[in-house]
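I had to read the description of the data format several times before I understood it. In essence, backbone conformation is discretised, so a fold becomes a row of integers matching the chain in length. I therefore recommend that a typical entry be quoted early in the introduction. For illustration, here is how one protein appears when written out as sequence plus structure tokens.

***
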Amino acid sequence: MRPAAHAHPAPPPAGADDFVIRVEGLEKTYASGFKALETVDLAIRRGEIFALLGENGAGKSTLIGAICGLVRPSGGRILVDGHDAVADYRAVRAKIGLVPQELHVDSFERVMDTVAFSRGLFGKPRDPAFIEGILRELSLWEKRNDKIIALSGGMKRRLLIAKALAHEPTILFLDEPSAGVDVELRREMWQMVHRLRARGVTIILTTHYIEEAEEMADRVGVINKGEILLVEEKTTLMRKLGRRELTLHLREPLAALPDGVAGPALTLAEDGRSLTYVFDSQSEDTGIAGLLRSLAEAGIEVRDLATSESSLEEIFVSLVRGRPQ
């Protein structure tokens, strides 16, 4: 158990017209018969940071690929800023920047050239000052004349982001952005994402790094076996599904809990020096007052106490395994 991460300010609640992406009844079945997506409905707000959580193979990348036009759906429809993702593919792709997990470019191309080329692919006019700004923001300016093959893994990940931003998209998809990157780069990427959101860019990230969603997201969606299990405000999700624990540090160690105090919600540490009590913070009666009375009546003195709540990771595991918290 650990305290919840600091919550970043969320955008105001959305009205019916404030959803920049709408996914309705989306299905994807591959030729092999494998059903990657099962009637997915999802609406993403304009200007939010949305984290799509799921284990490997849960359907995250297939869903993102369908929205970006890289995977053709078997059924349902996708609207991106009012444009149909299949019928109006070009208009949709112009609005989207996609940062994939892998870099697939000519290794002997220069950094500056590949970013400028990405801008040109979408019909954007040449703008060396804009490209310079992106490269400077991503600490790539000093590498602008280097060939891609000479870049480190972290620099290549920055280059992926630069290419995705080159045509000034209003929606940015980050597919597993922290996979294989070090802690310093991960923090820098998080800071950059918040700067982009401040400029009005909608951010959607797929991840199985719970820390990433906990740090960055306004809302969280959980996908498992091609189905959306839940979409919720991050803080609301943690409040509704997160258990809280009260840890009581004892003045004197106990060999065992007295019968009048013992219960399924209360456990004694192996060294006998602390008790852990699990409770529902939303309940009218948490049972804490009664527990403290019982301890006092049993002559057990409490030296100190502290509370903590479930991390998003514990909530995620509980949802995927179908167990109530």
